[in-house]
Amino acid sequence: MKTSTPPADDPELQIAPLIDCVFQLLIFFMVSASLVKSEGDLGIKLPGMNQTPTQVDMPDEQIIEVRSTGQVFLNGREFGDPRRSELPDLIQTLVRYRLASNSSKNKPMITVWAEDRTRHQRVIDVLDACSAAGIEYVTFSGSSPQ
Protein backbone atom coordinates (compact mmCIF):
# COMPACT_ATOMS: atom_id res chain seq x y z
CA MET A 1 0.00 0.00 0.00
CA LYS A 2 1.33 3.22 -1.15
CA THR A 3 0.75 6.31 0.88
CA SER A 4 1.02 9.62 -0.63
CA THR A 5 3.29 12.17 0.95
CA PRO A 6 2.18 15.73 0.92
CA PRO A 7 4.18 17.91 -1.37
CA ALA A 8 7.16 19.53 0.38
CA ASP A 9 6.72 23.24 0.82
CA ASP A 10 9.67 25.54 0.79
CA PRO A 11 10.63 26.53 4.37
CA GLU A 12 9.68 30.09 5.25
CA LEU A 13 11.65 32.43 7.46
CA GLN A 14 9.55 34.14 10.13
CA ILE A 15 10.62 37.82 10.13
CA ALA A 16 8.33 39.23 12.90
CA PRO A 17 9.94 37.35 15.84
CA LEU A 18 13.39 38.15 14.47
CA ILE A 19 12.61 41.89 14.39
CA ASP A 20 11.26 41.72 17.96
CA CYS A 21 14.50 40.14 19.19
CA VAL A 22 16.61 42.73 17.42
CA PHE A 23 14.60 45.59 18.98
CA GLN A 24 14.89 44.05 22.45
CA LEU A 25 18.66 43.70 22.08
CA LEU A 26 18.89 47.27 20.83
CA ILE A 27 16.94 48.59 23.84
CA PHE A 28 19.05 46.48 26.25
CA PHE A 29 22.34 47.84 24.91
CA MET A 30 21.05 51.42 24.91
CA VAL A 31 19.99 51.20 28.55
CA SER A 32 23.14 49.44 29.77
CA ALA A 33 25.43 51.79 27.84
CA SER A 34 24.07 54.81 29.72
CA LEU A 35 25.03 53.24 33.08
CA VAL A 36 28.74 53.13 32.26
CA LYS A 37 30.49 56.34 33.25
CA SER A 38 32.79 57.59 30.55
CA GLU A 39 36.40 58.35 31.40
CA GLY A 40 36.05 62.03 30.59
CA ASP A 41 33.59 62.56 33.46
CA LEU A 42 35.76 61.25 36.31
CA GLY A 43 37.00 64.69 37.42
CA ILE A 44 40.58 63.73 38.20
CA LYS A 45 42.70 66.46 39.73
CA LEU A 46 46.40 66.35 39.16
CA PRO A 47 48.75 66.93 42.10
CA GLY A 48 49.92 70.45 42.59
CA MET A 49 49.68 73.36 44.95
CA ASN A 50 46.28 74.00 46.36
CA GLN A 51 45.80 77.59 47.44
CA THR A 52 43.00 78.70 49.69
CA PRO A 53 41.86 82.30 49.47
CA THR A 54 41.24 82.59 53.22
CA GLN A 55 42.98 81.13 56.21
CA VAL A 56 41.31 78.06 57.67
CA ASP A 57 40.85 78.24 61.42
CA MET A 58 41.83 74.98 63.00
CA PRO A 59 40.33 74.38 66.43
CA ASP A 60 42.79 74.10 69.26
CA GLU A 61 41.93 70.81 70.97
CA GLN A 62 43.40 69.18 74.05
CA ILE A 63 42.74 65.65 75.29
CA ILE A 64 42.22 64.97 78.98
CA GLU A 65 42.76 61.33 79.90
CA VAL A 66 40.94 59.92 82.91
CA ARG A 67 42.33 56.56 84.03
CA SER A 68 40.46 53.90 85.93
CA THR A 69 42.72 54.56 88.94
CA GLY A 70 41.40 58.13 89.14
CA GLN A 71 44.48 59.77 87.65
CA VAL A 72 43.87 62.73 85.33
CA PHE A 73 46.38 63.51 82.58
CA LEU A 74 46.65 66.49 80.24
CA ASN A 75 49.53 66.45 77.75
CA GLY A 76 51.23 63.65 79.68
CA ARG A 77 51.19 65.58 82.97
CA GLU A 78 49.22 64.28 85.93
CA PHE A 79 46.85 66.67 87.68
CA GLY A 80 45.31 66.31 91.10
CA ASP A 81 45.16 63.55 93.66
CA PRO A 82 43.01 60.53 92.68
CA ARG A 83 41.49 60.52 96.19
CA ARG A 84 40.33 64.18 96.07
CA SER A 85 37.61 65.56 93.84
CA GLU A 86 39.13 69.04 93.52
CA LEU A 87 41.50 69.68 90.62
CA PRO A 88 42.86 73.22 91.19
CA ASP A 89 46.02 72.72 89.09
CA LEU A 90 43.93 71.47 86.17
CA ILE A 91 41.62 74.48 86.44
CA GLN A 92 44.57 76.90 86.35
CA THR A 93 46.06 75.13 83.34
CA LEU A 94 42.71 75.12 81.53
CA VAL A 95 42.24 78.86 82.22
CA ARG A 96 45.66 79.57 80.67
CA TYR A 97 44.77 77.31 77.74
CA ARG A 98 41.45 79.15 77.20
CA LEU A 99 43.15 82.55 77.28
CA ALA A 100 45.84 81.41 74.83
CA SER A 101 43.22 79.98 72.47
CA ASN A 102 41.12 83.13 72.63
CA SER A 103 44.15 85.32 71.91
CA SER A 104 44.86 83.29 68.76
CA LYS A 105 41.14 83.54 67.83
CA ASN A 106 40.52 79.80 68.14
CA LYS A 107 37.86 77.98 70.07
CA PRO A 108 39.27 76.11 73.07
CA MET A 109 38.09 72.53 72.76
CA ILE A 110 38.54 69.70 75.25
CA THR A 111 38.07 66.00 74.55
CA VAL A 112 37.63 63.82 77.62
CA TRP A 113 38.84 60.27 77.15
CA ALA A 114 38.03 57.91 80.01
CA GLU A 115 39.01 54.27 80.38
CA ASP A 116 36.22 51.71 80.52
CA ARG A 117 36.38 51.13 84.26
CA THR A 118 36.69 54.79 85.28
CA ARG A 119 34.30 55.96 87.96
CA HIS A 120 31.71 58.40 86.65
CA GLN A 121 32.35 60.79 89.52
CA ARG A 122 35.94 61.32 88.36
CA VAL A 123 34.74 62.25 84.87
CA ILE A 124 32.27 64.68 86.44
CA ASP A 125 35.17 66.21 88.43
CA VAL A 126 36.99 66.84 85.14
CA LEU A 127 33.84 68.36 83.63
CA ASP A 128 33.51 70.62 86.67
CA ALA A 129 37.12 71.76 86.17
CA CYS A 130 36.37 72.57 82.50
CA SER A 131 33.30 74.52 83.54
CA ALA A 132 35.25 76.43 86.22
CA ALA A 133 37.87 77.34 83.59
CA GLY A 134 35.16 78.70 81.27
CA ILE A 135 35.58 76.13 78.50
CA GLU A 136 32.31 75.47 76.69
CA TYR A 137 33.31 73.01 73.97
CA VAL A 138 33.78 69.64 75.68
CA THR A 139 33.35 66.31 73.91
CA PHE A 140 33.90 62.66 74.78
CA SER A 141 35.99 60.17 72.84
CA GLY A 142 35.39 56.46 72.63
CA SER A 143 38.70 55.53 71.04
CA SER A 144 42.13 55.45 72.57
CA PRO A 145 43.95 58.81 72.89
CA GLN A 146 46.68 59.67 70.38
Gist of the model:
This protein has 146 residues and is α/β, with parallel strands linked by helices.
Structure description:
By secondary structure, the protein is an alpha/beta fold. It has a domain at 61-141: Nucleotidyltransferase, domain 5 (2-Layer Sandwich), CATH 3.30.420. The chain is 34% helix and 17% strand. It contains 3 helices and 5 strands. The protein has helices at residues 15-35, 88-103, 120-132, and strands at 60-66, 72-74, 77-79, 108-114, 137-141. It has a 5-stranded mixed beta sheet, with helices on one face. Helix 2 (88-103) crosses helix 3. The radius of gyration is 37 Å and the shape is elongated. The model has no long low-confidence stretch (mean pLDDT 81).
Keywords:
single chain, 146 residues, alpha/beta, Nucleotidyltransferase, domain 5, five-stranded mixed beta sheet, 3 helices, elongated
What spatial form do the alpha-carbon principal axes imply?
A: elongated
- Give the CATH level 1 class of the domain at 61-141: Alpha Beta
> What's the quaternary structure here?
single chain
The computed structural class is alpha/beta
By CATH, the architecture of the domain at 61-141 is named 2-Layer Sandwich
- Rg estimate, integer Å: 37 Å
Instruction: Count up the helices.
Output: 3
- Please list the strands of the largest sheet in the order they lie side by side: 3-2-1-4-5
CATH topology of the domain at 61-141: Nucleotidyltransferase, domain 5
Strand content: 15-25%
Mean pLDDT: 81
**Uncertain spans:** none
Helix and strand sequence: HEEEHEHE
Helix residue percentage: 25-40%
Count of beta strands: 5
Q: Report the biggest beta sheet as strand number plus sense, adding barrel if it closes.
A: 5 strands, mixed
Distance between the termini: 103 Å
